[in-house]
Amino acid sequence: MSDVESDEGPPPHPALYELPDIPFDEMSPLQKRWHKIKAIPEFPVKVVYLGDCEMPLEYVEYLSEDMRKQAFEQAATEDIDIGGLELKESGGKKKSQSRGGRGAVKAKKKAEPQKVKVGRVSRGKKKAVTHVTGLHSYELDLKKTAKIFGSKFACGTSSNEKNDEIVIQGDFIDEVIDLILDKFGDKIPENMIVDIGDMKKAG
């Protein structure tokens, strides 16, 4: 096969492209490119997106420390090969990982179940938002749970894993409690859900 790519039709499948039996350094740029492509175990390439940032592995090392840790923990939990990526720590220290291995990330300590508190913060005379805290201690994905609330109540929602909090646009205290029991009653006992009523606005 010619080293010159044709403008007619799609490029050949990697399995069909035959490379010459010569050292890599002696290959043409096109042959080197196909050599790298054929080294990929699966084709087309399956891109894995990690963490709340939802970015591919090769970009994880450029994120903030908290987001890197979250992505590496997900990779370790789901048995994803991170290759030679490194988990950098503040202060210039690095936890290096030899290429081909899996990141040695310590698993988070399981949080003790907390009371799930549902309250309301008034914004003006007619507007209010509903705050829900404590769900993360039951190992619930706050981002996905917030989407469930938003879809059920047709409103905007946001989540903050650091503060273990979900904010729902609107006054839905009773509805939220009912939905938690309906969706997550197998994990969260009813006596662990508390209606705290009106809350003071932060700040």
What is the overall shape? elongated
> Average pLDDT value?
75
Strand order of the largest sheet: 7-8-6-5-9
Order of helices and strands: HEEHHEEEEHEEHE
Which spans of ≥5 residues are poorly predicted at pLDDT below 50?
A: 1-6, 96-101
Assigned CATH class of the domain at 116-198: Alpha Beta
Number of strands: 9
Helix content: 25-40%
The CA-CA distance between the termini, in Å, is 69 Å
What is the CATH superfamily classification of the domain at 116-198?
A: SUI1-like domain
Strand content: 15-25%
CATH topology of the domain at 116-198: Translation Initiation Factor Eif1
Reported CATH architecture of the domain at 116-198: 2-Layer Sandwich
Q: What does the largest sheet look like?
A: 5 strands, mixed
> Helical region count?
5
> Structural class, please?
alpha+beta
Radius of gyration: 25 Å
Family: Belongs to the DENR family.
GO molecular function: mRNA binding; translation initiation factor activity
Region (Disordered): 1-21, 87-112
Pfam families: SUI1
List keywords for this structure.
203 residues; Translation Initiation Factor Eif1; 5 helices; elongated
Can you offer a commentary on this structure?
The chain has five helices and nine strands. The protein has a five-stranded mixed sheet with strand order 7-8-6-5-9, covered by helices on one side. Among the domains are: 49-95, no CATH class; 116-198, SUI1-like domain (Translation Initiation Factor Eif1, 2-Layer Sandwich), CATH 3.30.780. A hairpin with a 3-residue loop joins strand 5 (116-123) and strand 6. The model is unreliable at 1-6 and 96-101 (pLDDT under 50). With 203 residues, the protein is of the alpha+beta class. The protein is 25% helix and 19% strand.
